[in-house]
Amino acid sequence: VRVTAKAVYSKYTLEPASPINFGPMLKGTKKTQTVVLKNKGMVNFKFRILQAPKDASALESQSSKQGESAPSATKHSTGRKSSSLTQGPLNLGMFTVSPCSGSISPWGQQKITVECLAGQEGTCEEQLYIDITGR
């Protein structure tokens, strides 16, 4: 009996990598940008987008030491923080991100929309993590 197997892991890209910068906006106006999460591997993977924990800079340092990229909506990053699955859009300050979870087949892609509604005066920056199963 001949048995073979091939062990693989999730491979992915995020374009544009980081950061997403909406630039100056008039109060009350809205802009939308799109990032594309691509599955470059041979197996399906699930993803979810989460708000970064308060100690996000510590996770970024840990991620960089492990050779992972730390892309930035205004900052996206791959992180190891787990949380409950987000079903609807994720609202963070002036930003709304959707979809916040899903599954991508091999060589497939998912467009992720980041919308900014300029509310209060001043600079708004949020940090997000994209958690990918099997990375």
List keywords for this structure.
135 residues; mainly beta; Immunoglobulin-like; five-stranded antiparallel sheet; 1 helix; Hydin-like; Ig-like_fold; HYDIN protein
Structure description:
The protein is mainly beta. Helix content is 7%, strand content 38%. The chain is built from one helix and nine strands. The strands form two sheets. A five-stranded antiparallel β-sheet has the order 1-2-8-6-5, with no helix packed on it. A four-stranded mixed β-sheet has the order 4-9-3-7, covered by helices on one side. Strand 5 (90-92) and strand 6 form a beta hairpin. It is elongated and about 70 Å long. The model is unreliable at 61-86 (pLDDT under 50).
The number of distinct β-strands equals 9
User: Helical stretch count?
Assistant: 1
Report how far the terminal alpha carbons are from each other. 32 Å
Shape assignment: elongated
Strand order, main sheet: write it out. 1-2-8-6-5
What is the C-level CATH assignment of the domain at 25-52 and 86-134?
Answer: Mainly Beta
Approximate helicity band: under 10%
CATH topology of the domain at 25-52 and 86-134: Immunoglobulin-like
Q: Which range does the strand content fall in? A: 35-45%
CATH architecture of the domain at 25-52 and 86-134: Sandwich
> Overall pLDDT, averaged?
78
The unreliable regions are: 61-86
- Structural class of the helix and strand makeup? mainly beta
Largest sheet: 5 strands, antiparallel
Rg, Å, rounded:
16 Å
SSE arrangement, N to C: EEEHEEEEEE
GO biological process, one term: cilium movement
Biased composition (Polar residues): 59-89
Region (Disordered): 57-90
Protein name: HYDIN protein
